[in-house]
Amino acid sequence: MSPNYMRSFSEGCLRPPTVIGQFHTLFFGSVRMFFLGVLGFAVYGNEALHFSCDPDKREVNLFCYNQFRPITPQVFWALQLVIVLVPGAFFHLYAACKSIKQEDILQKSFYSGFYVFSVFLRITLESVAFWLQIQLFGFKVNAIYMCDVGALEKKFNITRCMVPEHFEKTIFLIAMYTFTVITVVLCVAEIFEISCRRLGFLKPQ
């Protein structure tokens, strides 16, 4: 791919054809990624080390932590961010290869329809991630986790484990849910903006 294609691709990703799309990029790229990258590491970085059970033995702690966290929230949310970016990146790659200018995307039905389809995919992926997050993490992190250690052939099948910084993790969970909802609302608003532009209710930028 030539440098011109790469430049067009990067410009398309950073400056979508709609005003709301540009705001979505700013929100997604700065606020959401910063929140996950910086604060997420501070909240979840040492969770496995501070997760302790009764009896406080390494094998019990490790077994119960793997049961408590089938996938760490940081990994899940990082995968979510990457996957949600794919539809838009694919569209802008297509636009770069076809030498489509950003201002022309909303002028032709095929291009605008393709772009709207990519936004619909974003909404779908965000909704699926929202549902998966509920299944994996719920809405609240409890201070005590009851772990089934029967597979370790312990005397008692259920043991109590202490979850570190459970209140901070609950706040972080709610924040990530909120970010997902905001992203979906922005995507819906972007489709509405495109529809208004196509119908002539809004003037081109």
UniProtKB/TrEMBL annotation:
One of its GO terms (biological process) is cell-cell signaling. Residues 125-194 form the Connexin cysteine-rich domain. It holds the Pfam family Connexin. It is a multi-pass membrane protein. One of its GO terms (molecular function) is gap junction channel activity. Its main location: membrane. Keywords: Cell membrane, Disulfide bond, Membrane, Transmembrane, Transmembrane helix, Transport. It is found in: Cell membrane. GO terms for cellular component: connexin complex. The chain crosses the membrane at residues 25-44, 75-97, 109-132, 171-192. A connexon is composed of a hexamer of connexins. PANTHER family: CONNEXIN, GAP JUNCTION EPSILON-1 PROTEIN-RELATED. Belongs to the connexin family. Beta-type (group I) subfamily. This is Gap junction epsilon-1 protein. It comes from Nyctibius bracteatus (Rufous potoo).
